[in-house]
Amino acid sequence: MNTVKTSLRMEEVHSDIRGPLFFEAMELQKQGRDILRLNTGNPATFGFTMPKSVKDALAAGTERALGYCDFKGMPDAREAICAYHESKGIQGITPDDVFIGNGVSEVVSFALTPLLNEGDEVLLPTPCYSLWSNSVRIAGGTPVFYTCDEMANWMPDLADIQRKITAKTRAIVLINPNNPTGALYAKDLLEGIARLAREHRLLVFSDEIYDRLVLDGLTHTSIAALAPDIPVITMNGLSKSHSLCGLRAGWMVISGPRAVTAAYREAIIAVTSMRLCANTMAQLTIPAALADEETPRAMVSPGGRIYEQREATVSVLSRVDGLTFVKNRAAFYLFPRLDREKFGVTDDRRFARDLLHTTGILLVPGSGFEYPHPDHFRIVMLPEKEILADAMHRLGHFLDGYYQR
Known about the structure:
With 405 residues, the protein is an alpha/beta fold. The chain is built from 15 helices and 15 strands. The strands form four sheets. Strands 2-9-8-7-6-3-4-5 form an eight-stranded mixed sheet. Strands 11-15-14 form a three-stranded antiparallel sheet. A two-stranded parallel sheet has the order 1-13. Helix 8 links the parallel strand 7 and strand 8.
């Protein structure tokens, strides 16, 4: 029998969060090594628990979850999602504009598959959460990366976005708050991106999964609220704000002129209806979780876990020679930079492997987020603050004398 060949579109698809180094770390763990997994944003593995609001909703509604529901999602869940996004200023939406999926990962596929032909381009940030770049490739499109400027607190470079737009460009992707940098985008920047989308008649995808995990008293702004005249697909879910990664509760909301998105909506309906419906048990939790604003607020307020874990992390890292970073304003990620001259770093995957084998700390190198320079890595700040502080001290000791030859 001939060897089964894979599709050419898989050639550049990669996962570094759960890629070769992750599997190597799991082998070390099997051998008895103590591995600190700072590679993935999975709150439950670090002791974040299910909120009472969600437990009560699950207990009260189990029987409702036994059969298939509407392919768009349960009516009360879509009503709650619609009301939530209306409260953030998005105009002209109804529950019929909401599509619930098994996490944002699934709805990204639902959004891209009906849009892209072979060779169509999608503008993506760099650094970029690889779900987006991989999904564009699998859908047959071409990712084109625009710069997020570290010297400008990781804000997207509008001039670079403008330069990257071609006749093949179909959409611009925003990840706000950002993964992996933890940046929170300002209103004037979002207005600038909306202006470019308007001028070039582009669709905007806005991944806002971390919008309830904003630190330092700041406020998240949805681009769809600033631009009711352009088509925007806003994506969100409960994995991070209520620590429900395993339930897979995510959604997208289509806003903007209906005449512009009519055919696209019908194509999304065709795709989503094929899989019958999303996980109904997870959908039971959506109204209760969105009404429970205190759970995410408590985590990001002074004294809350996410806030204190960030403070512990940056306190130690700020004293590590040769390491710089932009303090995150949302989510629970940092994207530090290594001094290339001091450490001689030319291969960030080698750096991450050296760190793993020496310290037992598993990180994702910057190249795993489509970053073109070999001197960055992402830290997930989810373990308890004492564990993070110890890990950052160990990272500092590792770097003391480290040099790639």
